[in-house]
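User: My collaborator and I are trying to settle a disagreement about how two of our proteins should look. Neither of us wants to argue from intuition anymore, so we agreed to look at predicted structures for both before our next call. Could you fold the first one, then the second, and keep them clearly separated?

Assistant: That sounds like a sensible way to settle it. I'll keep them separate. The first protein:
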Amino acid sequence: MQKAEFDKFADEYYDLHQKNIRHSGESPEFFAEYKIRDIYELLINQALNPRRILDFGAGIGTSVPHFRRFFPEASLTCLDVSEKSLEVGRSRFPDLADFQSFDGMHIPIPDNAFDLIFAACVFHHIPSSEHFGLLREWLRILKPGGTAVIFEHNPMNPLTVHAVNTCPFDENAELIRGPSLRKEMQKAGFQNVGLRYRLFLPGALRALRPLERWLYGCPLGAQYFVHATKQQAG
């Protein structure tokens, strides 16, 4: 993971992100909030209520207020390689999460620690050769029966590809196809691995977004998420 890359952009990350997505008609808050809402709906449908949550690659803590809204009773740990980004996150959301750094490979957390592990458009910044090792770390620190969710940009969507190619902090990004990430999670040992495509309509057509649930299987959404569980003990 590119620590220096995100240290460099930490102070201006929000403004750069906002500028980069302006053609979508939405704000950075929209993209952060919809992900956590999707996770909430996924877990509610399974009657699951996570008590400990890990935001992997949390950066400046953009997802923190949305986790606090949808999972107010859960403890939240924000993990990142960028010390500078974590400093910004702590200043934005003091006392709302535990901000913790790591070396990009080995997660300094005990086995079976979290009910939910989440990453928002992080893995395309990580060399593909490191994905399997990190997913094995995820599996190690996830509780039996826990849920892992990874959101990513969809390389099958041309507008997404353009946004990534013109984004300063995505300079070294390597976009990942949804089916490839799903197979990697299965290979790492996760169970019940599913894939949903998201964000088919721009902000100008947001009133029609409830219809998108019928398009979850269409591989043209701007983003997607892969969700999986860790096998129950015994």
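The second protein, kept apart from the first:
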Amino acid sequence: MKHIFCLGTVLVFALFHAPAQAGDAEIFSHPLDGSTRPRFDGICADLAKNPVIKGGFEQTKIISRLNRSLVSRGDFIIAAELGMVWDTKTPFPSTMAVGRDYIFQSTPSGAKTRLDARGNETFLRLADTISAIFTGNSRLLLENFAVYFAEAGNSWTIGLIPEEKSVRLFAARILMSGESGAGGSKTALIRDITLYEQSGDVITYRLSNHSYPGGLSARERSLFDSQ
């Protein structure tokens, strides 16, 4: 159960003793302040305005103790009312839904695993944190993290250091970068999320092919059904 819990939380999205890249260190010299707060709030508002976001993902996990990396690819769905789905295609097909109080995983063979997290305050806090990161909930981000922000042209970077002990056990530093208004669009989008785990492992998610449908198809909605 602990493995399922950890897998679910990292898939929806990290400082310690992992080697920091130059760009990573730089963002943490730009704490959010009165001059950058309006742009930060604007980007968060743009991220939050779409009830459904779909696209593709590539996850790269660097396992520090083994000095190797693992790569997986697939599609994602972020639905404000329901949660997130990570539909992994390669190298091992599986589908994981992360809701407000559950994690549900299924495989093509029909095997299903469900973790009910109702009453688990740590999980609920992590679920809120992950949702806030992906949907741009500025209030929750500011309540739960020391926030850092920098912008250059259409590109922006947000650095997050958790304030809550339960979140720090999972992720010590989180970086998120993206674009706003690219190609004349008024929609902000997330390109990369990097999590530095307390274990020293580093996980990077690269998101692509973003689309913003008005709702979910019957099949997509069924992916959130853990029964």
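Some points you might bring to the call about the second protein. The helical segments are 2-11, 22-27, 37-48, 121-135, 138-144, 165-168, 218-222. The chain has seven helices and eleven strands.
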